[in-house]
Amino acid sequence: MTDSTVSVKAIKPLTDPKLGSASVADINYLAQATRNAVLPVFLLGNGATTERVTAAIRRLLEAVKLPVVETVQGAGNVSRDLEEDTFLGRVGLFRNQPGDMLLKRADRVIAIGYDPIAYEARNWNAEISARIIVIDEAKAEIDTYFQPERELIGAKADTLDLLLPAIKGYELNQGSRNYLRGLRENVVEDVKLDRNATKDGLVHPLDVIDSLQAHVTDEMTVTVDVGSHYIWMARYFKSYEARHLLFSNGMQTLGVALPWAIAAARVRPKETIVSISGDGGFLFSGQEP
Ligand SMILES: Cc1ncc(C[n+]2csc(CCOP(=O)(O)OP(=O)(O)O)c2C)c(N)n1
User: Alpha-carbon distance 236 to 213, whole Å?
Assistant: First the structure.
């Protein structure tokens, strides 16, 4: 019976336990590994997008310019100021992005808040050669392709704040800097895809993205549906605030953009929310009264 009267007192609310940072030994391990690395890279996932963690990542990147790739659910983590020195693009779905080349070449992948549902390691680490160190609050979901050599378990922001002084002064060597410069040019070159190749009367997807980008400010939230437009948005639409460019990755549920936009408008009532759908995705809810 779930509706009968109860006589016991209601359970009192509990205080959330506060996690501390990862252990000093584990943080030192990562600091040493970073210092010894020729090309370390940060792989930022959905779990790196809370306000505290994003702020800690930005503090660290301001002090130590390390290359960063985002999964599409980690979008917006890198600020405008840090973009030029650190950002090497988003990864996910197909292994054909500049960030994928970087993940393959890097001698340490430092995965922060990475959830395999965003981009399974069997795709980006098909050779099982990546040396992975994890920063997260719980132990990683391991498989053949994702076997971290160390896990820093604890409050991510606190862990990162302790890592900062331990790697301060580290700089990539000239060879790695040259490599990243070439890769960054690739990111830019890629966007120069031949837009004139579209037939008369049709618009190139990147032109749509450009005009949308010109109207979206950093504070606005953009929700993206699933379909071919999602791939263009995930790769090319820039976002400089975490949790402001939203994708239904993983299961890739079609039809989310409009209901998400309505929810976002309730959470951020003073901001403009933009919902992007194809006609298929829009019809999931567009006919609701
Ligand atoms: C609930 C659900 N049903 C089906 C799919 C498979 N699916 C992915 S994209 C897509 C078509 C999307 O078409 P449209 O919304 O017109 O966007 P476009 O591809 O033209 O950008 C379908 C059916 C899915 N991901 N989720």
Answer: 10
